[in-house]
Model the fold of this input.
Amino acid sequence: MKKEMRELVNYRLHRATETLDDARLLLNNEKLFSAVNRIYYALFYAVSALLLTKGLSSAKHSGILSLFNKEFISNGKIDKKWGRYYYEMFDFRQKADYKDLVHFAEKDVRQWLRKAEDFIPFIQAFIS
Done:
């Protein structure tokens, strides 16, 4: 991998961990919608970094989701549970940001955060 690409991958991984920290702060301050947004974006940055290792990217979130499934989930390189989780968080973020009268239980958001705390180090290790 070229130096510039490696720097971009590392930058995205750093953004993932930083954004996960933001999600934790928001959740601890009972800002559930914002926490859901930040959890999703933490995953998004990690998956974007992973795709960059294969020279892949997309301008759309749905494109990142599709590429992740095609390149890593459907062929068994990464467990399907992570593909489902990423899709769920994609959907929850859409609801949090764009839908009216949506409710998230704090216990659910905490569970999603815990999964993200496993997912991001997993992706970092997968890349290494």
About this structure: The mean pLDDT is 97. Residues 7 and 110 are 31 Å apart (CA to CA). The first helix runs from residue 3 to 28.
